[in-house]
Design a protein that fits this description.
About 45% of the residues lie in helices and about 25% in strands. By secondary structure, the protein is an alpha+beta fold. β5 and β6 form a beta hairpin.
Length: about 130
């Protein structure tokens, strides 16, 4: 159903990012579907004690929402030179709310998917896999 809605190419990125999260954070997250109402529809949230990211299926597209709190914003600012210009433009344009910056990142290429994995790595360092 998801593949039919977001399209084959977007679904490949969806699956690859899910696989990356599962491999990088084994046993940490139990993703759950949340309903944001008629205006926002359904999304797949990865959360432990705090939100990690949320997959947003859109018609023929796929986005990820990442909320960066104060500590994550400091890490992002410190890594500004190593993160992609596209990601930093999204970061700079995002409004800062009381609970952090909300970045909605469209995923339509491997480079954009890599941007998200780098940002998520700053948000929550990966566990060492024995």
């Amino acid at each position: 159903m998801i593949r039919d809605w977001i399209g084959r190419e977007a679904f490949e990125h969806w699956s690859a990012l899910r696989d990356w999260i599962d491999a990088s954070y084994p046993g940490v997250f139990a993703p759950d579907w949340i309903y944001g109402g008629k205006k926002h529809g359904w999304s797949l949230r990865y959360k432990k004690s705090k939100a990690f990211c949320t997959f947003v299926p859109e018609y023929r597209a796929f986005s990820v929402v990442v909320v960066l709190g104060a500590a994550e914003r400091e890490k992002t600012e410190a890594q500004r030179d190593t993160l992609s210009p596209r990601l930093m433009a999204l970061y700079d344009e995002a409004e800062t709310y009381r609970d952090g910056k909300w970045l909605k990142i469209g995923i339509s290429s491997a480079a954009e998917r890599r941007d998200v994995t780098e940002l998520l790595g700053l948000k929550r360092p990966r566990r060492a896999i024995p």
